[in-house]
Specification:
It is built from one helix and 57 strands. The chain is mainly beta.
C-alpha cells in the first residue's frame, strides 16, 4: 500500500466559500461512530501544575490541578495519574483551566472543582463541577462570574472549601465577585453579602481577589456547620478575614503584616495558623515575602521566615507553597517563589518555625523516565514556579511539590531532619500538561515530530516513552509554533518558534529531526519570530510566515529571505505535497485563494472569490496529489483537485476547525481525511475513507480533549490520528478493533 505524508494545517480568519458543482453528499445526520482507543503520546507533565490536594479520608488518594490541562487523580500516592476532564470539547475548553479543588473530608468519593480558564470579560464560562465518584462523572453548576485557572495568582491556596463537619456546605472565593456559598453540596450558590470584599480588589490583586478559604473545626462537631472560617484576600492591609458564626458575619484579623497578603495557609488545630505572604500574586513579579505564624490563644503574629528576601546580597523573592504534617503539627515545609537566582528552594522545620533547614541544598533529583527534564545537563530537579507543596497526611515521609514543568516527589523527606540528603523523582506518569502547536507524521523515520509551547518540540520514535530529549538545541526557540517536512524528501524538516530575539528562531534538519541547524537569518518582516513554516516537496524552498509579518521565502536555508509577492501581513502558506513549485495561501481581506507556481516567489489570486465573510477557513494540501486541497469553513467543506479552478462542496459539516490526512484505506488512492468540526450540529472528530462521500465519528463524549491546535493522521498506520491539544499534550487514537488485533498478534 502506498505511503502518504502528512501536512501542517493552517487556520485563516476568512469566510464561507463560493462553490461550483458537483456536490458531495450532504451531511444531514451525525455519522455513526467507530470505537477508538485513546492514549497519550508520552512526554510527561511539561506545564504548570498549580495545586495538589490530598484526601484526608482515604490513603493514597490525591488530586492535581493545572492551568490549561484540566485535573488529574491518583489512587496510588502519585504513582500514576488519570485525567478527569477529557470530556470537554472545543467550546468547553475553558473548563480545563482548574481554579481550585475541594474535597469532602468525610466522604472520599466527593470531589468538587472550580473550572474556568480566564477571568477577563472575554473569558469563557465558568462552573462548579461536582462528582460523587472521585471524578469519573461530573454534574455542573454554571456560575455567574468568570474564573481564572490560567490567570496570575493561579497557584494560590484552595479557594474552594468543603465544611469538614457538614459536607453539604461549601464556600468559594472568587476573583472579582466576592465570596460565594452553597448549602446543598454545590448544586446552587448564593453570594455572601456580609463578606467585606464584594467584588474585585484594587491594586496588584485586582484580578485575584480571594486566595483561599479555610475552615477551623477545632471546636466544631459533626453535623453542624463549622463556626470559624478564614478567607485570604490579595490586597495589602485587610487581607485576612474571619467569621466565628458560620459565615454570617466577617471581620478583618488584626495585625496582618503590612504591605503583604497571604498566598497559602495551614492550620494547627486549636494552636496556630501559618501563612506564606507575598507582595504580588505570582507566579512571577514577586519582590518580597515572608512566613508568619499566628497563635490562636493570644492572637500574636510572629515572623518565622527561614530566610529574608533581599538580605545579604540575596535577590528579592517571595514564598509560595506551605504545608503541615498532619501527624506532627510543628513540622512544616515551605517553598520560595520567583527566586530565579539562585533557583527556588524549599525549607523544612520540625519546631514550628523556630529553626529551618534548606532541603533543596542537598536534594538529589532523578528522572530517568523523563529525559527532557534534564535540559541537556547532567543533573535535574525543577525549581521554578514552586507554588504548592504538600506532605502526605498518611505518610509523613512523603511529600510532593509543584513546578512549571510538573510534580516532584520524595519518599524520604524525614532524612532531612537528620541533616542527610533527600531523594526526589518525577512522579508524573499519566500527566500530559503541554500545549503542542504543530505536528507532522512523515512516511519514514520517527512516527511523530512536534513543536510545543514553552518546551520547543519533540521527536517520537516510540509513542509510549518520553523521547530521549527534547529538541532544545540550536535553534533553541523556547516555544515552537510551526513545523513541516518535505513531502518527497521526508527526512528534511523545518521548524520555527518564539524565543530570545538574539538568536534565529527557526532551523532545519536533514536527518528526520535528529540534528538541527539554525537558519542563517530571519525575514526582514520578523519582529517576534513564531508563526508557521512550509517547505517545498523537494525540500529546497522554505516559506516562513512569521508572526505579524509578511511571509518570506528562502532557497539557501535562510541565509537570505525575500518577501512573497502578492501576500500581506499575517497571511500563512502551505506547500503542495507533490509539485515543489506550488504553494497556496488566502487573502484574508478578499477571501480569495492565492496560488504560487514559481516556488513562492509570487502569488496570484484565483479569478473567482472562494470566500465571503464568515468565521474561519482551514486550508490543507493533500499528500500525494498535486493541486489537491481541502478547505473547511464555518458552513461547508470544499475540495479542489485542480488548485482552486473548480470546487466540490460538502454541506452539513460546519465549523470545521482542523483537517488532517492519514493512511489510505485498502483499495483507495485518496488518503483518509480527518475533520474536527460539527456534523449535524454535533462537535466531534470525523474520518472519511472515500474522499468525503461518507464519514464515521471516531471520538466520543468522554474523549474530546478540549481545544485542538492540529489534527493529523499517520501515513503508516491506518486509522491512527494525532491531536495537538490546547493543554492535554498530544493524544492519539486508533480503531479499537485494530488495536485489539495488534495486541493479539
Amino acid at each position: 500500500m502506498q505511503r502518504r505524508g502528512a501536512f501542517l494545517a493552517v487556520v485563516f480568519a476568512v469566510s464561507a466559500l463560493h462553490a461550483q458543482t458537483p456536490v458531495l453528499p450532504a451531511v444531514t445526520e451525525v455519522p455513526h461512530s467507530e470505537a477508538y482507543i485513546w492514549k497519550n503520546v508520552v512526554i510527561r507533565a511539561g506545564g504548570f501544575i498549580t495545586g495538589i490536594v490530598y484526601s484526608t479520608k482515604k490513603k493514597g488518594l490525591v488530586y492535581a490541578r493545572t492551568d490549561v490541562g484540566g485535573a488529574y487523580r491518583s489512587d496510588d500516592d502519585g504513582g500514576h495519574w488519570v485525567p478527569l476532564t477529557d470530556q470537554f470539547g472545543r467550546d468547553e475548553s475553558t473548563y480545563l483551566g482548574i481554579e481550585s479543588i475541594g474535597l469532602d473530608p468525610r466522604d472520599a468519593n466527593k470531589l468538587y472543582m472550580a473550572a474556568g480558564m480566564y477571568s477577563a470579560d472575554w473569558g469563557g464560562p465558568s462552573a462548579i463541577l461536582r462528582s460523587s465518584d472521585k471524578g469519573k462523572t461530573f454534574e455542573r453548576t454554571a456560575m455567574p462570574f468568570k474564573m481564572g485557572g490560567n490567570d496570575n495568582g493561579r497557584g494560590c491556596g484552595e479557594r474552594l472549601a468543603v465544611d469538614p463537619n457538614l459536607g453539604s456546605i461549601l464556600y468559594f472565593g472568587s476573583r472579582k465577585a466576592g465570596l460565594w456559598k452553597s448549602s446543598d453540596s454545590g448544586v446552587t450558590w448564593s453570594h455572601v453579602d456580609s463578606f467585606p470584599v464584594k467584588d474585585k480588589v484594587a491594586g496588584v490583586g485586582e484580578n485575584t481577589g480571594i486566595t483561599f478559604v479555610l475552615f477551623d473545626n477545632s471546636k466544631g462537631r459533626k453535623g453542624k456547620a463549622t463556626q470559624t472560617i478564614y478567607a485570604g484576600v490579595a490586597q495589602p492591609g485587610a487581607s485576612l478575614y474571619r467569621s466565628e458564626d458560620a459565615g454570617v458575619t466577617w471581620k478583618p484579623v488584626d495585625g496582618v503584616p503590612a504591605g503583604l497578603f497571604p498566598n497559602h495557609a495551614a492550620l494547627a488545630r486549636g494552636k496556630a495558623l501559618y501563612f506564606s505572604f507575598d507582595d504580588d500574586i505570582g507566579p512571577n513579579d514577586i519582590h518580597d515575602g515572608a512566613i508568619w505564624k499566628y497563635t490562636l490563644d493570644d492572637a500574636k503574629w510572629t515572623d518565622i521566615s527561614p530566610v529574608k528576601p533581599g538580605v545579604a546580597g540575596m535577590r528579592k523573592f517571595g514564598f509560595g507553597g506551605l504545608t503541615m504534617d498532619a501527624k506532627h503539627r510543628d513540622t512544616l515545609m515551605v517553598t520560595t517563589l520567583d527566586r530565579w537566582g539562585p533557583s527556588d528552594t524549599f525549607f523544612r522545620t520540625t519546631d514550628g518555625g523556630a529553626t529551618w533547614r534548606d532541603v533543596g541544598l542537598d536534594a538529589q533529583a532523578s528522572a530517568p523516565e523523563t529525559p527532557w527534564a534534564y535540559w541537556h545537563h547532567e543533573k535535574t530537579g525543577g525549581r521554578g514556579w514552586m507554588n504548592d507543596i504538600k506532605i502526605d497526611p498518611f505518610h509523613s515521609e512523603r511529600v510532593m511539590y509543584t513546578t512549571g514543568e510538573g510534580i516532584w516527589g520524595s519518599s524520604d523527606v524525614k532524612e532531612s531532619d537528620k541533616k542527610k540528603p533527600t531523594h526526589w523523582t518525577f512522579p508524573d506518569e499519566g500527566i500530559e500538561e503541554l500545549v503542542p502547536t504543530g505536528l507532522i507524521s512523515p512516511p519514514d523515520g520517527a512516527h511523530l515530530l512536534s513543536v510545543v509551547s514553552d518546551l520547543d518540540g519533540f521527536r517520537h520514535e516510540d509513542l509510549g516513552r518520553s523521547p530521549k530529549d527534547g529538541f532544545f538545541i540550536d535553534p533553541f526557540v523556547v516555544s515552537g509554533t510551526g513545523i513541516d517536512f518535505a513531502a518527497a524528501v521526508p527526512a528534511t524538516v523545518v521548524r520555527v518558534g518564539e524565543g530570545d530575539s538574539k538568536i534565529v528562531r527557526g532551523g532545519y534538519s536533514v536527518d528526520d529531526g535528529l540534528h538541527w541547524m539554525p537558519f542563517g537569518s530571519e525575514p526582514a518582516s520578523s519582529t517576534h519570530g513564531g508563526g508557521r513554516v512550509a517547505v517545498s516537496a523537494d525540500g529546497k524552498t522554505v516559506v516562513w510566515s512569521v508572526d505579524r509579518g509578511v511571509p518570506s521565502w528562502s532557497d539557501d536555508w535562510g541565509k537570505s529571505w525575500t518577501a512573497c509577492a502578492g501576500l500581506g501581513a499575517a497571511m500563512q502558506v502551505v506547500a503542495d505535497r507533490v509539485n515543489p513549485s506550488r504553494f497556496y495561501s488566502f487573502n484574508m481581506e478578499t477571501g480569495q485563494l492565492l496560488v504560487s507556481v514559481d516556488g513562492a516567489r509570487t502569488f496570484t489570486a484565483r479569478t473567482e472569490p472562494v470566500a465571503v465573510k464568515d468565521h474561519s477557513v482551514e486550508l490543507a494540501a493533500t499528500p500525494g496529489l498535486e493541486g489537491d486541497l481541502w478547505i473547511g469553513t464555518g458552513g461547508k467543506v470544499f475540495h479542489t483537485s485542480d488548485a482552486g479552478v473548480t470546487f466540490v462542496t460538502l454541506e452539513g459539516m460546519t465549523k470545521v476547525y482542523r483537517i488532517g490526512f492519514g493512511m489510505p484505506a485498502s483499495g483507495q488512492t485518496m488518503p483518509s481525511i480527518f475533520l474536527n468540526g460539527l456534523a449535524a450540529s454535533v462537535e466531534g472528530l470525523y474520518r472519511s475513507d472515500d474522499a468525503g462521500k461518507s464519514w464515521v465519528r471516531v471520538d466520543d463524549a468522554q474523549h474530546q480533549f478540549g481545544w485542538k491546535n492540529a489534527v493529523i493522521g499517520d501515513p503508516r498506520v491506518f486509522g491512527r490520528v494525532y491531536l495537538a491539544t490546547g493543554g492535554r499534550g498530544i493524544v492519539y487514537g486508533e480503531p479499537l478493533a485494530q488495536a485489539n488485533s495488534a495486541a493479539v498478534r
